[in-house]
Each structure stands twice: as structure tokens, then as C-alpha cells.
Amino acid sequence: MSSWNRFKKYYYQNAALGLSLDISRIPFPDDFLASKEGAIQKAFADMGALEKGAISNPDEQRMVGHYWLRAPQLAPTKDLSNEISSTLNSIKDFAAKVHSGAIKAPGGAKFTHVLVIGIGGSALGPQFVNHALGQPGIDKMAVTFFDNTDPDGIDYVLGTLSGHLATTLAIVISKSGGTAETRNGQLEAAAAFKAAGLDYTKHYVAVTGAGSKLEQTAIKENWIARFPMWDWVGGRTSELCAVGLLPAALQGLDIQAMLDGAAAIDVVTRSTKTSENPAALLALMWYYATNGVGAKDMVVLPYKDRLLLFSRYLQQLVMESLGKELDLNGKVVNQGIAVYGNKGSTDQHAYVQQLREGVNNFFVTFIEVLKDRSGKSLEVEPGITAGDYLQGFYLGTRDALSEKDRSSVTITLPDVSARTIGILIGLYERVVGFYASLVGINAYHQPGVEAGKKAAGGVIALKLKLDAALKSAAGKPQTAEALATSVGGNPELTFKILEHLAANGSVKKTPAANVFDSTYSA
Ligand SMILES: O=P(O)(O)OC[C@H]1O[C@](O)(CO)[C@@H](O)[C@@H]1O
């Protein structure tokens, strides 16, 4: 079959959504879709049960309800429907009051800036949407983020808020309410408010789960407002609950259009007719391209600057959902699909060299956006605009990769708008769910992230022991090994901690010819 005929055969377009999907450049044989029909029907059934409120996250014994956020009437109980709707109303109401000045900064001025403090799913969606849809200088409020526990990163963001803290609203977002990085950001921001002579509690809002530590603090300190985060919404699928909607509404973005876009793609991706279901087609392409075992990585290449952060957002959505040691039967499978990417054509001048000529261990997801900009474009050459070049580079790169048997899919969108961002989010949430069914894993838990958190706790405990040992040694210089022995700690960790303390002036290091003979004292 010619590539044009194959393109026509496998081109999916939904004119009402403005969404197209080209899967023709994944080299699956013509009988592949039929051979997986039973498996994808099972995925549809799993998804149907999930949407009806089944315990689809068995390890945590939780329902998985992110699809109800944009269709509250589909939630399994009236109480849940009401809670979703009333939370949405209170988000809109809160944002309107902040914009009008009915809720204002303690000095009496309107709030002008938003500082979001969160990490992982409590930051990636809001950051993606902020960058995709924001119009700096025009937005109702400027939104910035603390998404780490890096002191210098915190100072950088505080620097951008310099002179604006008095009118900054800080939203602390944490589903669990116990995430260390977020707690640290909360304390660092509070210290910055205090240093500026401001009462931070009059600037703080919480988005968190009922009964969490964060909620308790917000209640005790009487923060301005609290919004719920439900246990049936996972962090990586939380963009369309208060986590993402509150910052977006404050920024002045059309959150209803985002919800409507997600609701519209949900309707389409509930179809049990595979050829009419773009999420099913994509999940099947992931399966084919990766052999159902993550054999290839997913390179996400949007040809649109506004979608720059989509690959980071997808990285968590896909890798935290699919990267699992065990399948649902407890068998070791070490599943997952690695995701990375940035944007085209920028990446053509970076890593695309390897994509075409190096190891063939990936498939590309191109995202094409038809609308170049609002308004007319300059001709950079007679009859040619910068946008023509952007499309040329996308089509050229796609062909250059195909020539070398590098697989790709393309998603085409009419524009980057609140509605199409909702469509993208909804589309990929469902692809991940279908793919998880195809490979038989729980997409909705993340047991693997606990190990690192636990180990970090051990490092903090060891640091405190070392502080005490250095103090009681009253200035006596000691090697890392000697100090490790004295506190019963791991010598390598001790060495690393001491080097960090020395670099920050908290201990005195006396270097030696052999680095491990260096000594440290209080
Ligand atoms: O919203 P929380 O509870 O602070 O969690 C932040 C992120 O941390 C994780 O739990 C992983 O550690 C993610 O799943 C989550 O999005």
C-alpha cells in the first residue's frame, strides 16, 4: 500500500473536536487492530467500570474519579456530584472575588500575583496550563511556582516577586498534605512574607485532602480559604480539580472551556468502536511501538512553544502510571514507557540527530497546531511566514525519520486554547488508562516513589546525628569515616553530608591530599 493510501486508511479526524490523529507511520500490519480487538474491548469494559465507581486502584482501595470532574452528573453518588459542582462554583466565586477586590490583600489592595507551592501532580499540570494559555502582562494575575526544595530556586522565584509580596496570594497544594518539598516551600514563603512585615496567614490558601497535616495547619492558622482534593483523584490526573482550576481561574483563564474540552473528548473516547476512539487507537499504537513491554521510549515533539511543558506533564502522567514492577496478578513485569521531549523545531538543533541516525529505541509523538498566531504573520521570505517554516520543519523531520524506519504518530489540533488543552489532557488520561488495561497493571498507584522518600528521611536523621557529634567534639577535626563510626552511620552518606555542610559554611573542612583524609569540625 502506498504511504498516501495508508495515511488515508488510518487517518482519524473528529471535526467537532478539531482533533486529528495519524497512526499510519507506526508500521503495524493490517491485521494488528483486529488481533487486539478482544484486549481493547476488555480495556473499554475496565474503563466503564472505573467510571461507574469501581475500586480501580485496588492497592489503595480507591475509586478513580477524574472523569467525573468534568461531568459531575456521572459520579456514582449524588453527594459526590454535588461536591464536585459546589467546589467548582466556589473556585469560580473565589477567583471572581479576588479579581474584584472583594477578597483583598491585608493592606487593602487587590491581590496581583499568585505563588503556587506544590510538586509533582500538584505543580506539573498548573505549570503546563499556565505556560500554554497565559498572556504575561494581560492575565488577571501573574502565577509563579515553588516546585522544589532547592533554596536557590526558591530565592529565584522570590526575586521575581520582589516588591509584590504584599499583593501575592500563595496557594499551597498537596493532596497528602505531608510532602516535604511542599512543606518546605510553605515555610520558606512564610518566612519571606514575615521578613517583608506581612502576616502570611492572610495570604495563604490550601488545596489538600481532608484531615491532612496541611489542612490542620490551614485551619489552625485561619488561612484565607481551603479547597478539597479528593482521595479518588490522583495527583497526576488532578489538573481539572482545584489543583489546576484554582490557579488557572485566578490567572483569568477560561476554566469552564478547559472542562468542556475534557468532557467532549471523554464522550468521544467512551466509544467502544476502536476505529472511532482516538484514545484506544493511541493506546494500541503505544502497545505496538513498544511491544507492550516499554521496549521503546516516547519522544514528545510539539511544534508549538506553548506546548513546551506538555512533555514534562506527560512524563509524570505516563511514567508514574505505567512504570510498575508488578502486574495486577502480582507477577514481576517491570512495565513502563519512558517519556521525554521538548519542542520542535528547537530540538532539531539538539537531539534529532540521534533520532534519525542513532539507536532506534523510540517512537515520536508529533503534535501539530494548525493556527500559527492570532493576527497576520510577517512574510520572512516572499509568500512564506515563520509559521510556514515551523510546519515545514515538522513535516520534514517526520519524513526524515520515516525514511530511516523511525516510527511516529501525529496529533493535530486547530489551536492552543483552553478547550484544546482540556482535550489533550482528557485524551492522554484515557490513553494511559487503556494502555494499563492492555498490559494488566494498576495505573493509579505509585508504590515506587516511597523508597526514595524513606531513604531521604534516613539522610536527614543522619545529618542531625552528625550535627550533634560535631558539636560534642568541640572543634576537634575528624575524618568522614571517623565521624560515621562515631554516629553509627553509613560512611558514604556521611561524607556526602559533610561535603554539603562544608560548602554551606556549616562545618569547617580541612582538605587533605587524599580527599578521604580531609577533616571536618564544628
Ligand atoms: O500532592 P502531594 O500529596 O503533595 O503529592 C505530590 C506528588 O508526589 C507524588 O505522590 C509522588 O511522590 C505524586 O504522585 C504526587 O503528584
From TrEMBL:
Recorded coiled-coil stretches: none
Active site location: 320 (proton donor), 349, 453
Transmembrane portions of the chain: none
Keyword Cytoplasm: yes
Keywords tagged on the record: Cytoplasm, Gluconeogenesis, Glycolysis, Isomerase
Pfam families linked to this entry: PGI (PF00342)
A GO CC term attached to the entry: cytosol
Molecular function in Gene Ontology: carbohydrate derivative binding; glucose-6-phosphate isomerase activity; monosaccharide binding
Top-tier EC class: isomerase
Its EC number(s): 5.3.1.9
Glycoprotein recorded as keyword: no
Compartments it resides in: Cytoplasm
Primary site of residence: cytoplasm
Similarity field: Belongs to the GPI family.
Task performed by this protein: Catalyzes the reversible isomerization of glucose-6-phosphate to fructose-6-phosphate.
Protein name: Glucose-6-phosphate isomerase
Species of origin: Nibricoccus aquaticus
Gene, per the UniProt record: pgi
